[in-house]
Amino acid sequence: MLVYVYAADLLCEDCGKKCREELTAEGKAPEDPDDEVSYDSDDFPKGPTEEGSSDSPSHCSDCGCFLETELTDVGVDELLSDCERAMRGDREANDVLLQWVDHYEGNDSRVSLSALANTGLTIAEILHEVARLDGEVKRLSAEVEHLQAKLRDS
Questions:
Q1: What CA–CA distances, in Å, run from 127 to 45, 99, 123, 134?
Q2: Domains of the chain by residue range
Q3: β 70-71/46-50 pair status
Q4: How far, in whole angstroms, is CA 59 from its chain's centroid?
């Protein structure tokens, strides 16, 4: 995915273009935006360019969309560690983690091997089930609290 670099953050292509247009309208664009060596990315977004690999998944700092960054080996290890913690219940299997796993498990063979060896399921299948069970636990906890309140009131 193409990204813009601006003020030490990453912007998706749409947000980068929008930011450039806004800064240009405010008269804050460099003389030649295509000559990226002539200005600092703190002043005007540079790009679009491929982000390259990263030690963690990246999101646009403006809209929050997932940038589908290629992960380094360290990044894969961190993602697998997050997945293992979610499967143990030490980390929430939230929508962001599920989005990462859905993407990387389909696009990076390093992401699926440990879960497949132990369960025959993909990490995404396991985490979706963990998320479903977390929701069920929350629903049942709320129901128990409601019943306890009814008992107190009677």
A1: 36, 10, 6, 10
A2: 2-70, 72-153
A3: unpaired
A4: 5
- The pLDDT tens digits of the residues spanning 39-85 come to 999 999 999 999 889 999 999 999 999 999 899 999 988 888 888 88
In angstroms, rounded to a whole number, what is the distance separating the alpha carbons of residues 25 and 47? 18
Bridge-based pairing of strands 70-71 and 53-54 is parallel
pTM: 0.70
Please give the torsion angle defined by the CA atoms of residues 134, 74, 59 and 82, in that order, rounded to the nearest 10 degrees: 10
40's tokens: 């600092």
Give me the phi and psi of 49, to 5 degrees please. Answer: -150, 160
CB 57: neighbour CB atoms within 10 A? 22
